[in-house]
Amino acid sequence: MKLDPFAVEVIRHGLSAAAEEMSLVMTRSARSPLLREAGDLSSAITDAKGGLVGQGRDIPIHLGAMAYTIPELLKVVPSAGLNDGDVLIYNLGALGGNHLNDVKVVRPVFVDGRIVAFAISLAHWPDVGGTWPGSYFAKAIDTFQEAIRIPPVLIATAAGVNTPILQLLIANVRDPQACEGDLLGQIAATRAGEKRIVELCRQHGTEMFLASLSRLHDLSEIEMRDAIRELPDGVYQGEDFLDDGDIGGAPARIHVKISITGDEATFDLSGSCDRVSNFCNTTPFIARSAVAYAARIMSGRDMQQNAGALRPLTIITRPGSILEPGWTAAVAAGNHETSMRIVDAVFRAMQDVIPERLSAGGATTSGMLFFAEPRADGSWKMLYEVHGGGEGARHDRAGVSATRVHLANTSNTPVEVIEANYKIRVERQAIRRQSGGAGRHRGGDGVVRAYRVLAPSMHLTTCVERMVIAPFGLQGGAPGQACRISLVRQGENIEIDGKSNLVLQRDDLVTIESCGGGGYRVADMERQQ
After folding, report:
1. Who's near 349: CB < 8 A, 6+ residues apart?
2. For residue 396, how many other CB atoms are within 10 A of its CB?
3. Banded model confidence at residue 524, pLDDT cuts 50, 70, 90
4. What's the pTM value of the predicted model, to 2 decimals?
5. Residues 75-104: what's their mean pLDDT?
6. Residue 43 near residue 62, CB atoms below 8 Å
7. What is d(CA 193, CA 250) in angstroms, rounded to the nearest whole number?
8. d(CA 168, CA 173)
């Protein structure tokens, strides 16, 4: 088929618009503030084989992992067994997944009796059961302590919602009302995606639509190969560390060896440490997602991130390591903490090759404080709050303050929403001045937020990296200040660990001071001295 390049481009934008609409449906219909306000969700569209072809402007770590979601799903749920109107739900890491809080709802899109695409809605559920409210248990020895594991199962068909499965799910979470609302929002989001995909097929013809998807993969592959070819051949190594988790509580190493030959690149992560003792393990799909993001930054191009862009990349993880720990390992934090260390390790490997494309270390942590407030009826209200920090400086400018960097793209929850929905008073919100590292260009500053507990008790989870190992500077720039969490209880100031679960009392004051970004290059005055 001879393809009209203009039609291919119209279809490309149509797919992106469809994914954007899916995310909009979710944010407008979800009940949890985490989804409705913070936007911890992502939408994607794949071709019939699972190759990613369209995505919203959502969260990079989600979107990269969804490149593997449908291919892995089809290994256990063949497409021949799916029917028009079917909607599947699952959260297993082995199926192109990440941590169990990220629940995927998938709808095959049929046109004239055959599957032409899949619409995927991923949402971070504030609670999916497990040992601790919020499903983040820092001392979990395996994933069974973290959350309910959902294999692929039909949550809806053409006849409507599968009520027994819905009842099973909401019976195993601590906020069933919010869970049900969020899930119904996901189902609606996939329906919106389906509608737009069918419209594209009707407008351009199904064969033209399918051929255009294949062409989009090829175009991204060509662009990625051209970008890699512009980099000098060679072997480059870099490493970064999680604050702890290795033997004896030592920092956990993430190591990458990048081999560039012609128009292909290999990212070997097998030198990373073994499976760690906390919840910072992650899946090989998250490792691949982090590499795909870093490779796009290395390219210096604003290319579409689809399945074709992955073809020139070989990504290696080692069984038994922190990045391929087995499907029973605790992985709650690895999704947004360990993945960031991979990006930082890649940046450090390439810092002398393409410094103008990279930034110094920044707030590459979720900075998560999770408050769980018990209700009188035995259910819980969940506040999952992430905190930005300082961006690392670049060769041509200072880092941005109070922002999210790299693989995260969530917002903070407005103070008014917190205070209207939870027995919490936000007593301070400010920029953490001078927390960015010095240099010719300074790193961005972090943030300060203080929460006063007004309920008789609350459960708190912390999931914060860069508490021990501060964001690094580039080209001689100084590191930013590390994160800090404190608790004031009856006049006593107590330092809180970055990975902890504890019970708060009425009038406790919890304060997080997020990290500043690293500086770029030694300042002129220091060089003269």
Report:
1. 236, 237, 238, 256, 257, 258
2. 9
3. low
4. 0.94
5. 94
6. no
7. 46
8. 9
Any idea which residue has 């006593």 for tokens? Answer: 492
**DSSP reduced 3-state for 386:** coil
For residue 411, what are its two tokens?
């917002």
If you ran DSSP here, which 8-state letter would residue 357 be given?
Answer: G
Q: What is the spatial distance between Cα 453 and Cα 128, in angstroms, rounded to a whole number?
A: 24
Between CA 161 and CA 56, with CA 27 as vertex, the angle to 5 degrees is 100
Distance CA 254, CA 271 (A): 7
Strands (E) located in 312-418: 313-316, 368-374, 380-385
Using DSSP's 3-state secondary structure scheme, residue 300 falls into coil
155-167 residue pLDDT tens? 999 999 999 999 9
Average pLDDT over residues 476-491: 96
As a whole number of angstroms, the distance between CA 438 and CA 103 comes to: 41
* Contact status, residue 265 vs residue 316, Cβ threshold 8 Å: no
Average pLDDT, the chain: 94
The structure tokens listed for 29 are 């219909």
DSSP H/E element including 522: none
Residue 526's pLDDT band (boundaries 50, 70, 90)?
A: low
* Contacts of range 226-231, beta carbons closer than 8 Å, 24 or more positions apart: 226/263, 227/298, 227/299, 227/300, 227/301, 227/303, 228/260, 228/262, 228/263, 228/264, 228/265, 228/299, 228/312, 229/262, 229/263, 231/260, 231/265, 231/298, 231/353, 231/354
Residue position matching structure tokens 């810092």: 351
Share of the chain above pLDDT 70, in %: 99
φ, ψ of residue 380 to 5 degrees: the values are -130, 150
Confidence of residue 24 (pLDDT cuts 50, 70, 90): very high
- Lowest mean pLDDT, pick from 183-187, 255-259, 307-311, 389-393: 307-311
